[in-house]
Amino acid sequence: MAQADVEVVEDMNVEGGPEAGEAVQVLRRVFGYEAFRGSQQEIIEHVIGGGDAVVLMPTGGGKSLCYQIPALVRGGVGVVVSPLIALMQDQVDALRALGVRAGFLNSTQDIEERRLVEAEFLAGELDLLYLAPERLRVEQTLSLLDRGKISLFAIDEAHCVAQWGHDFRPDYLALSMLHERWPEVPRIALTATATEATHTEITTRLRMAEARHFVASFDRPNIQYRIAAKNEPKRQLLELLREEHAGDAGIIYCLSRASVEKTAQFLVENGIAAVPYHAGLDPRTRAEHQARFLREDGLVVVATIAFGMGIDKPDVRFVAHLDLPKSVEGYYQETGRAGRDGQPSTAWLAYGLQDVVQQRKLIDGSEGDDAHRRRLSAHLDAMLALCETVECRRVRLLAYFGQESGACGNCDTCLAPPQTWDATVPAQKLLSTVVRLQRERGQKFGAGQIIDILLGKKTAKVIQFDHDALSVFGIGADLREAEWRGVVRQLLAQGLLAVEGDYGTLVLTEASGGVLRGDRQVPMRREPEKAARAARAKAKRAPVDLPEEALPVFEALRDWRGRTAKEQGVPAYVIFHDATLREIAVLRPASLDGLGGINGVGENKLAKYGQPILEVLAGRGTTDGGDAAGAGSGSDHAPPEPPDDIEEPPDDIDW
Ligand code: ADP
Ligand code: ZN
Question: pTM (2 decimals)?
C-alpha cells in the first residue's frame, strides 16, 4: 500500500507544479485563508513530496496546517500522534467543522466507537486519524495501520521525546519504529520548544537526521512581554485584569495549588469569572473547568503549570504569572498560549525576592543528582537574568533560543526604559552585614532580619539577638525597605549572594569578595512606578479595538456564535475566530460571495453559516441574543475526559 505513495511522489513536480498549487487551493477552499505564513508553504511542499521534516515553530505559528494540508493532498490517511487525549475531541470537531474527515482512537472511547473509527480508516474514509502515543505500542494498532493507507505520520509535541525536558513521555521513545516499519511514509515532527538541546534530542531519538529541519523565528510580535516587581500581587493582578483585560479569556499561573485556589477565589469575589485548575482537583472538576475555558468567552483559569499544553484556544488574551517560572523555556511556552490568533495580547509576570528564595530552596531540596541540580540552577539563572535585564525582553528571550533580533518596541523595557543605578555601596553594606553576622556571631539569617538591621529597626527579633549592637546596625537607613528587598533580589540574581537551607538564610558566594573589596561595580535595575504606568497606558492603546460603528455588529456576531456553539456542543472558536468575526463586522459583506472572501471563511463554513451570518448583518437573527456567548455554565456537550496524560506531582507544587 505504501507503494502507491511512492509512485505519486515520483510523478510530482513540487516546485510550482500542480501539486504545489493544490496546497494553496486547499488552504483557500478548506481553511478559508488567503496565503501561507512564514515557512508553511515550504514545509508543506516538502512533506507532500514525501520528505521528512522537523519543524520548530512557536505556539500559534501555524504548525497544524503543516501536516493537515499534506494529509489532504497526498492519498491516504494522515496519522497524527499526540499526547493530548483530552483535546482530541475538540481537534476533531474543529476539523469536521471545516469538512475534513477526521477521527481519533484513544482510551476514552468504548469499543463501539473505536470499531467505527477503525472501519472508517480501513475504508479510506478518513483524512486524518489522531492517536495517543501509547496506542502505537499495541500490536493491534500497528496491524490496523498496516491494513490501511497512510499518507504521513505527524508527531505532534515532539519535545515529549526529550528525556530531560519538562514534558517527557516514555511512549514517545518508541516512535522511532515508525520509520522502520513504514519507511516510505514521510514523517513530520513538530514542537514549539526551541532550545538546541531539545532539537538535538528530537532528531536523534526519532532518527530524523536525514529530515529537513525548519526552524521558524520564535518571535511572537503580538505578545507584549512585561515583568513587574511584585509588590502587592493581588492588587496588581486585579488592575491588569480590570484596566486592560476586562471580559477577556486568560490564564494565570501560580506555583502551588493553595495559591491557585486562593487567587481564583479572590478574583471571583471581585466579580471576575475565574476557575481553579490543578492536579489536586478531582478529574471531573478539572475536565469541566478546562471545557468551560475552551467553550466560554472570557473565562479566566488560575492554574499550576499542569494546565495548558496543546490547548489551542486562539483568543487567550493574557497569560499572567504570579510566581517565577523555573525556566525561560517553560515561561516562553506558557506565555505563548496567549494570542495564537495573532491579535494583541499580554504576557505579564510579577516577581519578587521571595520567588528567588523559594526557587533556590526547591532546587536544593529536589531529587536527583548534582548534575540535575546544576541544570535546574542554570535554568533559574537564565530566568532571573531575563527578569533583571535593562534591555529589550524580546531580544533576551530570542537570544536564549539562539535567535537575533532588534529592540521590539512592545515590551516593558522598550516602552518605558528602566534606569540603572550604581548599587555598589548598598551592596557592600548588605554583604558586610552578612559577613559580620557570620564572623562575629557565627549566625546566618534570612533577608528580613538583615534588612531590619540595615534599616536600624529595633524589632523584637533584633533585640532578642542583640543585633542593634552590631556596627552595621542602621547603616542602610537611606534606602526604603522595598528598595533593600530589590537589592537582595538582584544580588541573588547576579550570583553575588546565595540562599541556603530551609529558612532561606543568606550567604556569600565566591563572587561576593570582589564587591566587598571594591573591585567590582554593581549596577542595578530601578523599577520606577512611573515606568509601569507608562507601559500600561501604551498597552491600553493597543489596537484590539474596532471602529465604533462595528462594535454592535461584532457583539451581535458573538452572540450568534455563542448560541450556535452551544447548540452544536463545540467551542465558540470552532465556529469562527474572533479575528474573522471582527473582519466581518468591519466589512459587513452583503452577499455570500463577499463573505467567502473573508479570512477564516472556507467553503464548508460558508455553506453552513453564510446565510445566518448575513441575517445577523441585516439586523435579523439577533432578537433572542440575551443569552450572551455561553455565559452560563451549562453545556450539553459532555466535557472531554480528564487529562490523564498529566503526571501527578507529589505535593502541593505542580512541577
Ligand atoms: P500552532 O499549532 O503552531 O500553535 P496552530 O496551527 O494552532 O498553531 O495555528 C494558530 C492559528 O493560526 C490557528 O488559529 C490557525 O487557524 C491560524 N493559521 C494558521 N495558518 C494560517 C494562515 N496561513 N493564515 C491565516 N491563519 C492561519
Ligand atoms: Zn522590547
Answer: 0.78
